[in-house]
Design brief:
By secondary structure, the protein is of the alpha/beta class. It has helices spanning about 15-30, 40-50, 65-80, 100-130, 150-170, 200-215, 225-235; strands at about 10, 30-35, 55-60, 85, 135-140, 175-185, 245-250. The chain binds nicotinamide-adenine-dinucleotide (NAD).
Amino acid sequence: MGKLDGRVVIITGAARGQGEREARLFAAEGARVVLGDVLDAQGEALAKELGEERARYVHLDVGREEDWTTAVAAAKDAFGSVDGLVNNAGILRFNELTGTPLEEYLTVVRVNQVGAFLGMRTVAPELEAAGGGTIVNTASYVALTGMAFLTSYAATKAAIVGMTRVAAMELADKGIRVNAMCPGAIDTAMTNPAQLDPDADPAEASAAVDELYRKLVPMGRIGRPEEVARLALFLSSDDSSYITGQPFVVDGGWLAGVSVF
Ligand SMILES: NC(=O)c1ccc[n+]([C@@H]2O[C@H](COP(=O)([O-])OP(=O)(O)OC[C@H]3O[C@@H](n4cnc5c(N)ncnc54)[C@H](O)[C@@H]3O)[C@@H](O)[C@H]2O)c1
């Protein structure tokens, strides 16, 4: 028996990174998954690998209202109903506050913040119609503490935690639980862009990232995407049946405090 037997879950940004791990784990735990992304070739390939009984890919730019309508229709067409959502899609831009162009700021808001808003707004009525369900939003460590050069990103992730609390209150009586994950540094292309560079030496890039996080994180290493996927599973399954409206930090102890030694 899987922890998500019989469930149908839409996962955004599922073509790679944490979303891919969530898709694999949720499918292994019995869910049927609808993978949304803008990386069509990668998303299609993953859905094919997971199999038609388990997975579908749909082109879903999370900042576009009409894409959400199409994604929900595709999910219902394939699997009958939807009772779970993982808002995982996100982008990151580094820039100092005074050098951030408005266009860049709004680009990040459109994907991270508007994307999570549209996802919850579009999918919540489907979860209600299915008799209840779960929403897991992907915020960040920087929703809860500061990090220089991340004004746009930090703003959107704090907004996600805020929206999570409000949605949890409004949707509780419909049997819908809404929680947020706040990952620290996780080893994906977002934190380690060398993963996408065919000319980069993966061992060298990993060693540089390892060195950095050995010093910063009490557990002495960067997190793995499957460690975030397991939190998403917990928050999507009955194991978390009395939990809603909360941000959950998964960061190897990074946020616990500073160390002077
Ligand atoms: N990697 C980290 O250290 C870290 C830390 C905290 C939070 N996060 C958050 O975790 C989530 C997953 O990131 P990741 O680490 O797997 O990075 P990633 O860059 O590997 O994956 C992000 C995914 O989102 C997709 N995406 C981007 N724009 C999209 C759009 N408009 N519509 C649909 N999909 C879109 C990308 O194509 C990609 O598949 C993001 O929300 C990110 O902000 C990551």
